[in-house]
# Entry
Amino acid sequence: MDQRVFLLQFSGCLGEQRNRVRFPAADVNFPADIVTRAGQLCLGFFHQVKFGSPVYYAHPSGQILSLLDRAFYAGAEAFRHKPAAVVATARRAGTTASLDVLNKYLLNAEMPIVSSTYWSMVFAPAPELVEQDKEGLQTMRNLGRNMAWLLGCIEAGQQQGRTPPQAERAHWTSFNR
# Structure
C-alpha cells in the first residue's frame, strides 16, 4: 500500500531563546494555502493525516492551534474521511488536555480517529530522552499498526465500491432564540 502522509509537526520554541517565539508565517499559511488553492486535489493525495504538538503550559502550542483553526476553517472538506491520529509530547503534564483539544478538530471534520492501547502521548524532558518512555513508544507502535490496519480496511472497501457517507446538514441549533 502506498503510504503517503500529511504530517503537521512543530518543533519547540523554548530553549536558548526562551523569551522569543519562532512563528514564521509560512508555518501557519502552508496548510490553509494548500486547502484554499488546491482543495481536495492536493490533500486528496494523502491517505492519512497526523497531528503532533509539544505541550508547554498544559495545552497544545499556539502554533498548531492557529494553524489548525485556519486550515480546518478554510478547508475542512479536504480533511473529511481521512484517518488521523493526534500525538502529544510533554515533560510532565498537559498531554490529555492537548489530546482533547486537538481531537476536536478531527471530530468536527468527520475524520476517523485512530486510537491505540493507551493515550497517544510520550513523556520526556528532551526529545532524545523519549526512547526511555517504553510504554509511550509501545503505544506509538500500536497506534501505527492500527493506522495501517484502518487504511487497509478503507482501501479494501473502496475496491468493493464503498464510498464515504454523506453527512446531514439541514438543521443547525441556535441557542439565541
About this structure: The two ends are 51 Å apart (CA to CA).
